Amino acid sequence: MKASHVIWAAVLAGVIGGLVLIRLHDADSSNPSSPALEQAEASASVAAGASSSRAALQRCQLMAQPDDACRQLWADNRRHFLGLDTSSSAAAGD
Fold this sequence. Notes:
Elements: H1 2-30, H2 35-62, H3 68-82, H4 86-93
């Protein structure tokens, strides 16, 4: 009989602990100035930008005669890959 009380107490403590964690997570998610939320949004926008530029690079790769936009995209991608400053390099190339 005593062991069943211990089991029920452990289950109750686990449920209460889980509810507290859920409540803390919801309170943090609803805070628009949360650093974790801002970082997640920034990561999502970077990933979206990376996938769109990757798609553009793939489109350019399939072209028989790349246009000037593709050449510029390749140059920017090369500068980014090499860690060069894209703003000063682009201004110097014009």
